[in-house]
Design goal:
33% helix, binds adenosine-5'-triphosphate, DNA-binding, four-stranded antiparallel β-sheet, ABC transporter ATP-binding protein, AAA+_ATPase, 348 residues, seven-stranded mixed β-sheet, alpha/beta
Length: 348
Amino acid sequence: MSTTAQGQTGGRPGDGGPETVPSLDELRGRVAAARQQPAYGHDAVIACDRLVRIFSSDGVEVQALQGLDLTVAKGDLMALVGASGSGKSTLLQILAGLDVPTAGKATVAGRDLMAMGAKERLAYRREVVGFVWQQTARNLMPFLTGRQNVALPMQLSGGRGRALKRQRGERAGELLDLLGVGHCGDRRPQQMSGGEQQRVAIAVALANEPSVVLADEPTGELDSETGAQIFEAFRTVNRELGATVVIVTHDLMVAGEVRRTVAVRDGRASSEVLRRLATDEHGEESLEEREYAMLDRAGRIQLPRQFLEALGMEHRVGVSLEPDHVGVWPEQQQDPAADGADLDERTD
Ligand SMILES: Nc1ncnc2c1ncn2[C@@H]1O[C@H](COP(=O)(O)OP(=O)(O)OP(=O)(O)O)[C@@H](O)[C@H]1O
């Protein structure tokens, strides 16, 4: 068999078939093609690449994020769920520009969150992201009316003059109308219900047309009916304005109403549920739901905890590549697809 890289066809002894040896030009072509591959998350509005956040207090280190990978496309409406302490709020604070990751990479609308200076960070928080907190009182200035609250971020982002002031007032009114709280335009927060305050807060978050709206437990202080209305408000701004929305929630019922739900476990994205409307042959529409395990860039997946418990999997598992899937077995169990005789020989 020839060993020169000249594009020849050879064959390995015993393999029974010819083997193509790539030419030098082909190899160069492959390297160039690999270099031209778009960067991870290049078309996503949010791209987190092996994100790590370690907190240290009293000599104890907590790894809140342990190499989290996540991409969010423009126009997505996504819920982040997970047990308490899994790292959801830490992730949201980083995306909001309120905290900085320890390692890894995070970009939002092309801004590198690791590399921003104080001035850029301030502009980022005002213009690139909008944030809705759980505490209704934290979202709004108590001494301003609904309309003034919505106009404030626009005012802070610059521009003086009557015409601009009028435009801001008009935009504030339009956003309040879209969210069904036009009647709160002249009311102060204490004259609004909790649900109205949160809808005004969504209008505030949208004021500067941010690339992403982030919300941390926005329904946490509300009863379930009002909470459902708030989710409906997020759906409205996603549908009508094309806003990209990421919501942290504990409410699985509500999380089930968005297109995409990502579960965070131990500081990593572990699984994802995607939903879409499917139409059957009679024209009947139904919601199709499919759960996926997340595969990170190093090829790691987190198996659902209930799968591990059901099969007693720990530390090590057997894996095998099948034509259309990968099999995973408990260490002590034989791969049913493997050749039994082969295993017998190995264990003898
Ligand atoms: N400022 C901090 N200092 C030290 N540890 C922190 C800090 N913030 C978060 N942590 C720790 O990081 C881990 C992740 O916390 P995080 O608040 O992100 O979780 P979460 O999933 O949002 O939880 P919850 O649903 O209860 O809000 C937890 O163990 C938490 O105690």
